[in-house]
Amino acid sequence: MSEGAQIYNAIRQRKQKHNGTVTLSEALGQFMAEQISPRQAKYGAIVELWRQILPVELRRHCEITDISGGQLTVRVDSPSYKYELHLCSSELLRELQQQCPRARLTKIKFVIS
């Protein structure tokens, strides 16, 4: 289910509980509690570990943009840094898998932005 649909469902559920009225802050609060916080708990460790294991020079040229379906997607600002990251991707993936097994990562994808 898309995030938009999830927000819509949260608003609809709140309306039913409160005689048809719900504030946006209530709906977003429910969405955050049910969707964002669990995802942050699961994937926040990956972002932190990424910052720790990646050399500063490489870290300045890339950014994690998505974690879904076992794939970590990383945006890179130039082809040369993408190539350099690709060379060490198996070691990076292995370290992430060992330190963050709950994420169940199977692949790192690098994209140029």
Overall description:
The protein has 113 residues and is of the alpha+beta class. It has one domain. Helices cover 61% and strands 17% of the residues. The protein is built from five helices and three strands. The protein has a three-stranded mixed beta sheet. β1 and β2 form a beta hairpin. The mean pLDDT is 82.
Give the secondary structure arrangement, pairings included.
Blueprint: H1 3-17, H2 24-53, H3 56-59, E1 62-68, E2 71-76, H4 79-87, H5 89-99, E3 107-112
Parallel strand pairs: 2-3
Antiparallel strand pairs: 1-2
Helix pairs in contact: 1-2, 2-5
**SSE series:** HHHEEHHE
Shape: elongated
Helix content bin: 55-70%
Please give the order of strands in the largest beta sheet.
1-2-3
What would you report as the Rg, rounded to the nearest angstrom?
A: 18 Å
| Oligomer status | single chain
| Strand content range | 15-25%
